[in-house]
Amino acid sequence: MVEIHRRKYKNGLNAVATPLEGKKKAAFYVGIDVGSKNESRDRKGCAHLLEHMMFRSNEFRTSDQIAEEAEFSGMEFNALTSLTDTKLQFWLPPEKLELAMELAYQSIVSSSYDRQEFQSEKNGPVTTELVAYERDPTQRYIRRVLFPRIFEGTPLEDAIIGTFDSVRRLEVSDLVQMKRGFYVPNNMVVTATGAVNPERFFAELEKHFGNLTETKITQQDLSLMLRPGVTYVEFDDLKDPEKESQDQAAVYVVYQVNSMQHEDAAGLSLAQTMVGDGFTSYMFKELRKERGIGYSPNAIYMSMRGNAIFMMGLAALHPKQLEEAVDIIDSIVERVKEGPINQAFFDGKKTQLRSSLLSLLEKNSFHADTAIEREFEKPHYTPESLLKTIDNMPLGHLQDIAKRNLSADPLIVV
After folding, report:
1. What is the model's pTM?
2. What is the arithmetic mean of pLDDT over 69-73?
């Protein structure tokens, strides 16, 4: 059993240490409860651009000094942004934990940016990402059509990366304002996993993060009310007037379901494995293998801040196959709810999911992500209790969960 150590500091900072036997390296993460959900409509892409600037020059070190001190000490580092949160990630020899804390702290408290670096990052890598998004049909469908329709009317409906116009308007002052409002201790989780001594970790963390000032945070309401129906959007560049056989389409069938905060999360995770994970999944066998429909049919159970969706579909298939694909997905949903489901198949998919979870539990990064998720998402299960629940779940209970969650009219986005 993994032993988890927690501490909450006077300034509201939550810290989690998870020592893991046999590990020679450690993972150190800082999770901040800020993402594209916290942006105004005319400043979309701010959280993403801020993430890009986290390890650029500040008043403590130049970007070259940050990179050299980290990498020359055997450390890897990165930052990433999602719809809901931002993470600073370090993977390091355990004796370099204090250096990682120092680099993270300085990146968080800095309000000084080199304007040339800012313009270079905004107009270079970030704009290049935007161009890639717009030219990639799958990304454009997911970020500009599918997610905006699913999360319509909520702060989650806009793409993390923003738009050309919104990014063009961003200034250094926007990054500083977001930092001052959200990069505060009572809006953070700091965690270390792997080869880590909890007491040393907590003591060093006090030195670096203990002087941060608690600040009142106002988070937006993210309540989702999925509107069922069919949304159809055409991209002219996916049509070839001379070679109709090369036309392309995408389709997902989406249900609003119970989130990871609910006990149904175990059954929904198992249903995802049955429906869309691997060569033995219903979708792979019945869409791709038996009928040659699409390349990568998949199912996704996604939960964010108490809201969740279960979606099934393909990001690439021929338009003439759309109706058949939706009919097959509908039949798969009915089978998961009503049967028949072969018991050997059910037991095999439980074993597959269990193996995947056990593989994740071997990784420092998974424990770091889990510690942050525990604070921000407040899931019903720990990884260990999820494993136990799946092991003991009878087929009838899985079908009851499917009936509860997959019986309303879905949203279909084409």
Report:
1. 0.93
2. 97
